[in-house]
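Do me a favour: review this protein, sequence plus structure tokens, and tell me how the chain folds. Record follows.
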Amino acid sequence: MPFLNNIQRWADERPHDTAVVISGRRLAWAEFRDSAAALVPETKAVTALCTPNSVDFAVRFAAAVAGARQCAVLDPAWHPQLQEDLVRRVYASAVPEAVSTDDRLIDGPPGSTFLIGLTSGTTSVPKAFTRSRQSWEKSFEASIEFFGLRQDDVTLAPGPLASSLNLYALSECLYAGSEFQAHGHFDVGDVHAAITHDRVTRLVLVPTMLRMLSERGLTGCVDASGVRTIICAGSKLDARTLEAARRWAPNATIFEYYGASELSFVSGAGLPAGSTPDIGGTGTGRPFPGVEVRILDDGGAPLPDREAGNICVRSALVSNGYLWGDDGQALRSFGDWFTVGDQGYLDAGELHILGRRADMILTSGKNVYPHEVELALAAVPGVAAAVAAGMPDDLRGQRVVAGVVPSHGGITAAQLRAGLEDLLPRDKRPLQYFVLAGLPVTDRGKVSRTLLLEWIRTGDPKARSLGY
């Protein structure tokens, strides 16, 4: 039961309390329940939902998973042709596990599929995976315990609800009976206004959003002392973002976690107010409640502490697998241990993320993961962002190169080398540096190491060499 039975409960117990506020429109618990319930009779067994952030989105999503129904959530920002293709695939591939004749707003069988998730991926067509109702109920229990969500919290997720991070935040709040807020689109001023006037106590967002909110909030004297929880996902927080967030929201515990769409939550850590962060480190905390983590080699054998291998998970939170797009590598299993191919190691119970095997740089017989290099560079004073990659090299096989976006003014290779002295082993440090006009990103907004190498190879002015 993901959350519908709980909505009924909150509507009975607290009918006039606020359930959701999206783009300024508010629905109390009783209004939310009644609006969703009215849509259930006309909602088909499978729904492809492609709607911008709105109260209507939240209501329609609730109706679309009632009973044994299934819902696929598409990003309205995707190209219309891609949207049409995905809608066709959803209706052709999804097989309802039972034709629901129940038109009430109730949860279906725990083991049944309710969500068809779509990964953004790097391919032209996103992969589609499915989740059971029970897997999300278990996830709610784990995340509510880990993050300390309370009914008197007001959660603001300023990103698109089509994103799994924000869709989960909405659903988690509906399950917990806690107020959820979102905006039509991300706007720094709107988020600052909500924090100031709407009693927001909890933020769920990605690191780039947190940096903008924190730095501009400090400049504009926006008071975020009432925020007690910040939850970040998508990538590890760099030193500059952590420092700005700590100053802007001094009373907040800042959580970052590692997970994957197919695995759900894996590990996480909270940085309480006043704590000192591990600058430049690769650690992502300890396993979530109910989650076991092991590092296995390619044959499925366990590896000892501090030895890198496949990050494998055993939990009740793992997805059911793919409807389409399964190449046999994206989600693999060794018995009941699952991996999405991320590499890492355990050290005294803490999980360290190194990155995808495909990104690994082999230089002079040593394995170097760009993620390690980028985290260390982001901790160097004067660096706003960094990206690393492996260039072909006749002597070494590959050499590590890095591009940096300065935080202000200029920066030199000598400053970068000096800044890495205590952060990165010598054999993992870049041999060549470039100043970037901006991060190399794909048309989907993902940082592209391939594009960085292309800029370097073609002498593109967006990557200016700082020498060796």
Q: What stands out?
A: The mean pLDDT is 91. The longest helix spans residues 133-147. The chain is about 30% helix and 30% strand.
